[in-house]
Please model this.
Amino acid sequence: MTNGSKLFKSLLKNKNCMIGLIMILILILVALLDDAIAISDYDMGNIAQRYLPPGAGHPFGTDEMGRDVFSRTIFGTGLALR
Model:
């Protein structure tokens, strides 16, 4: 058995390593599917809907310009991974 395969097997057995790997894979998946996941355009604002609390239409609420914070977070994931 090579050192690389021993290292890989020990990483697979490590619970914290697997949790971290799953989190990274979820972030990559969100970044790849941002258009499908986001509720609205990340830059589209509606002043009449500013500072709305979290709810069915806006899971994270809206900001000072009425933009959906959830959509902005989804699109920001892709920017953070670049």
